[in-house]
Amino acid sequence: MEETSRKDYAVITDSTADLSPELVRELDVEIIPLQFVIDDHTYLNYPDGRELSEKAFYQMLRQQKTATTVQVNASRFVEFFEPILQQGRDILYIAFSSGLSGTYHSSLMAREELQEKYPERRIYICDSLAASMGEGLLVYHAVMEKRKGKDISEVYQWVEDHKKNLCHWFTVDDLYHLKRGGRVSSATALVGTMLGIKPVLHVDDEGHLVNVDKVRGRRQSLQAMAEKMRQTCTHPENQMVFISHGDCLEDAQALADMVRERMQVKDIVIHYIGPVIGAHSGPGTVALFFLGTKR
User: Fold this and answer.
1) Model pTM?
2) Tens of pLDDT along 22-80?
């Protein structure tokens, strides 16, 4: 009985992982919906977009509506985690980057409260240091490790050991949203927009968004990301590659083609950047995620 219970654990993440409803079902993971506000309405970000679809969200942004996000508190985690613990299951929660949000710290507070109440249960919390489908790709790999029969502590350790090899590359079509979020200055945004400059950014080892390159032109920015992957990707032939986009599917597909031109990969999954991340990155963002030698 004890051996069975040790294998019975839930892999949980939050909606910033930007996993599609199909992938959520396939991986059998639990998703905590985070909140966002747009046009004075507060929504929960479910993977199936039941409260507001990604398409509708980006249409509102293009109509100059302002979107903001809401910090999740510890009580929300308690509400979500407790029924799982009551079922006699352990928890592995892979959290949105602590470098971009307080979500991880709220989950630690919830764990402290629940561990006192359920001392026999194990609650592992991993700071993914990741965002969007980078976080989602880490969850995907965690589930693959679980399916190999690994115990929760082994899967947690695998995630901790490999999360800094999870590479994130982003480009944006419009510098306005990065300016609003304080990622670039007003002057940089103005000059960059006039000259057609497209920044290429990545998420660093501390989980922060960092501007790496400035490329002139959209296609060149996509090519720069594909080239970054070619330079650092490990064993591409075995890799599941994730690409997320801010309502610009054609550009995401163009990036996928550029990746395939440069190397053989196992498969590429494309999906939306959800509203919680999209509130800060805006329409036209394209992001590429894979395992590499370093971030």
Assistant:
1) 0.91
2) 999 999 999 999 999 999 999 999 999 999 999 999 999 999 999 999 999 999 999 99
- Report how far residue 281's alpha carbon sits from residue 142's, in angstroms, rounded to the nearest whole number: 26
Query: In this model, does residue 140 exceed pLDDT 50?
Result: yes
Distance CA 271, CA 190 (A): 30
**DSSP labels, 88-109:** T-EEEEEEPPTTT-SHHHHHHH
CA distance 35 to 144: 28
Contact criterion met (CB below 8 Å) for 283 and 218: no
Burial of 261 (0-12, 13-18, 19+ CB in 10 A): exposed
How far is Cα 10 from Cα 80, in angstroms, rounded to an integer? Answer: 12
How far is Cα 248 from Cα 258, in angstroms, rounded to an integer? Answer: 16
> Could you report the per-residue pLDDT of 108-124, keeping only the tens digit for each?
999 999 999 999 999 99
Alpha-carbon distances, residue 88 vs 81, 119, 153, 291 (angstroms): 11, 11, 16, 33
Tell me what pLDDT residue 214 has. Answer: 79
How many of the other CB atoms lie within 10 Å of CB of 160?
12
d(CA 61, CA 72) in angstroms, rounded, equals 23
